[in-house]
Amino acid sequence: MEMIDSSEDIVIVDNQPLTVGHLNKIKAFAANGTTHYPISTLNAHLLSGWKWNTILGYNAAVKKFIFFKNLSGNHNFKLPALKKDIKDFCFWAGRNLYLNNSYKISAPSIKKYLCGLKAWHTFHNEEYPEIADKRIELLLKASSRIDATLPKKPKKPPILLKHLIWLSNALFPGGDIDKTIMDLAIVSFWGMARLGEFTYDNPFGELNSENSVLTSDVRLVRSAIGEKAIITVRNAKTAQPGKPQEIVVHSLKNMLCPVLALKRRLEEANGTDTSLYALGTPIEEICLLGRWISNSYRLYIREYTAEDKEDSKKIIAELNELWEED
């Protein structure tokens, strides 16, 4: 069977070729323990059954497990893991009254890591140890009790309209790159979209239409309140395989109108079927946008307080008045 140990093009997750860059990000998951070896073309294809972000999460779980084995004195671990390995890992990683270290994580995180370890075994065609679910469940439950005694980490506050205004004021006087980022933020805010859904994550090579929102993916239509834009998003994190999602934004009578932001992008493209938010932006600047990507926009939905709602309504009214004066 053909093996992959270079940057030759093999189809992988999200319709992208498997490269050395990809392999470097999943070294732990690709290895059969502490031993690294080239990935077969069959396994490269098998990887496409998972979303790339999912594989990265699994890789984090395996790295944690291998780190645990190294600390335990086993520097030559090889799959499959034993029942004792899994139970000891849960005890080592979970908070408890008998073993203290600086590597503790929450019980829900351990549960996710166990899913990653199961996937790791599946990928390497190894049997995951059959452990009574009740025993693992009790281990996690015991750690959860300790977790509950710790102060809760505050949730991130919502992004408010005043933040978007501040960002727009800061970016508008800038060059093409700043204006592109401003339009991206405006459309993402009103469309409740992840920035990663509107940007292209591959800095090199030909544009992959299956992994980017193109200018041809935007439809402008009349609506009862003016205009609306319908944006087709492929491979969205919350979409089913092969089924694109649509994000709809409506026109506003002020400077934060998402439809106007899209029109600016389309105008700059000048009829070219290209990436919607990569227009005129150097490759190194596009890469910087990756820092804006969250795991899932749903994690950041927060309820506005009554005061926040009232402030936002006043801001919109003031913006509309200013727009009419201009």
UniProtKB/TrEMBL annotation:
Which domain of life does the UniProt lineage start with? Eukaryota
InterPro entries, alphabetized: Phage_Integrase-like_Recomb (IPR052925)
Q: What PANTHER family does the entry give? A: P CELL-TYPE AGGLUTINATION PROTEIN MAP4-LIKE-RELATED (PTHR34605:SF3), PHAGE_INTEGRASE DOMAIN-CONTAINING PROTEIN (PTHR34605)
Protein's recorded name = Uncharacterized protein
- Classification lineage: Eukaryota, Fungi, Dikarya, Basidiomycota, Pucciniomycotina
